Amino acid sequence: NTRAAYPIEYIPNAKIPCVGPHPKNVILLACDAFGVLPPVSKLTLPQTMYHFISGYTAL
């Protein structure tokens, strides 16, 4: 699991300043080795916030 960061100016078609409206949909990719989440889940806002803030991943 590798992560990297670089300046936004390195992306040719980036809109600066990098702001926009709130998203209507959020896709949460999770490694769920224990099957806690179904393969496709429509979560409520509180459920989404909980799993996102928890950094949800099953080891």
UniProtKB/TrEMBL annotation:
This is Phosphoenolpyruvate carboxykinase (ATP). SUPFAM superfamilies: PEP carboxykinase-like. GO terms for molecular function: ATP binding; phosphoenolpyruvate carboxykinase (ATP) activity. It comes from the Eukaryota. GO terms for cellular component: cytosol. One of its GO terms (biological process) is gluconeogenesis.
